[in-house]
Amino acid sequence: MRSFLARVTITALLGGAALVGAGLPATAAPAPTGTITAAPQARADNAIAWFSSRNGSTAYQGYCEKAVENAYGRTGIYASAKANWNDAVRRGAAHRGDLNPPKGALVFWDIGAPYGHVGLATGDGNFWATSVNGRIGKARLPYFSNYLGWAQPNF
């Protein structure tokens, strides 16, 4: 039994490669490796690329929360930017008034509408959002009035 476990361990360490003469069947499956998720930097880069590829589009006017969620490959997480911000505040994750959000952070405004506004920070003082000159665009923070701050996406 010990010899068999040693061969299984070696096979798993080699990524399931067959060991000649090891006595294991040729169809031995590799050990499970778990779920692979994108690193935070790659997720932020992908979300920024999503916005960049839609630069000038009016398809998301009035749907800023949906846009940032879609940029991260999600949808239907929060009913509005205001609900997203309020959740960040409740969780202690909100960085109130901070104009230096890291790349990929969500930036929030209280623009007087009941739903608020949200965009995606690029990490260099700029952000992508809907409603920049009436369409998806890139602008310098704070751009809109009543900047609230930023929080990392909770999705």
Describe the structure concisely.
The chain is of the alpha+beta class and 155 residues long. 28% of the residues lie in helices and 19% in strands. Strands 1-6-2-3-4-5 form a six-stranded antiparallel β-sheet, with helices on one face.
Q: CATH class of the largest domain, please?
A: Alpha Beta
Rg (CA only)? 23 Å
CATH architecture of the largest domain: Alpha-Beta Complex
Q: How large is the share of residues in beta strands?
A: 15-25%
**From N to C, what is the helix and strand string?**
HHHHEEEEEE
Could you say how many structural domains there are in total?
2
Cα shape = globular
What is the helix fraction of residues, given as a range?
A: 25-40%
Q: What is the assigned CATH homologous superfamily of the largest domain?
A: endopeptidase domain like (from Nostoc punctiforme)
Terminal-residue CA separation: 45 Å
Task: Describe the fold and architecture.
A 6-stranded antiparallel sheet has the order 1-6-2-3-4-5, with helices on one face. The relative contact order is 0.16. The protein has 2 domains: 1-36, no CATH class; 40-151, endopeptidase domain like (from Nostoc punctiforme) (endopeptidase fold (from Nostoc punctiforme)). By secondary structure, the protein is α+β, with helices and mostly antiparallel strands. The two termini are 45 Å apart. The longest helix has 13 residues, at 40-52. The chain contains 4 helices and 6 strands.
